[in-house]
Specification:
Elements (H helix, E strand, L loop, with lengths): L4 E7 L2 E7 L5 E2 L1 H24 L7 H46 L6 H16 L2
């Protein structure tokens, strides 16, 4: 994995995170997204080139070998994409739960019974962490 680390700077109610490489270069979230886009484009180009440059000598064994290597690369990408999707789902779930708890704790204008029920539900959600 990466040899750098994450640096946090907090101010004005926000936390800004930066990736700092081993060499000391800092990357903001926007910088990381730009590099991800460039890497994705490069990966797509090279994958397409690898498919188009397969050996065409009529050797069925060589063709199977090259196709299997390409399929393996595609499977690896799909596996990584699934891991990223699970992490994004987890992060969205945390945010959604926090928003729900905040909404449940807004009891102004509710009857005392409703307020008590909403606060109990908020406490229950917080307790599931």
């Amino acid at each position: 994995m990466s040899e750098g680390h994450i640096i946090e700077r907090t101010g004005d109610g926000y936390t800004f995170r930066y990736y700092e490489s081993k060499g000391g270069k800092r990357y903001s979230h926007f910088d990381c997204e730009r590099r991800l886009e460039a890497a994705t484009n490069a990966m797509q180009r090279w994958f397409s080139r690898a498919i188009r440059t397969r050996t065409t000598q009529g050797d069925a064994e060589q063709d199977r070998y090259e196709l299997e290597r390409l399929r393996s690369a595609a499977d690896e990408l799909a596996e990584y994409a699934a891991i990223v999707q699970r992490e994004l789902d987890r992060l969205e779930g945390v945010d959604r739960k926090a928003e729900r708890v905040k909404a449940l704790r807004m009891v102004e204008g509710r009857t005392p019974e409703e307020a008590a029920a909403f606060l109990a539900k908020a406490d229950q959600l917080v307790g599931k962490e």
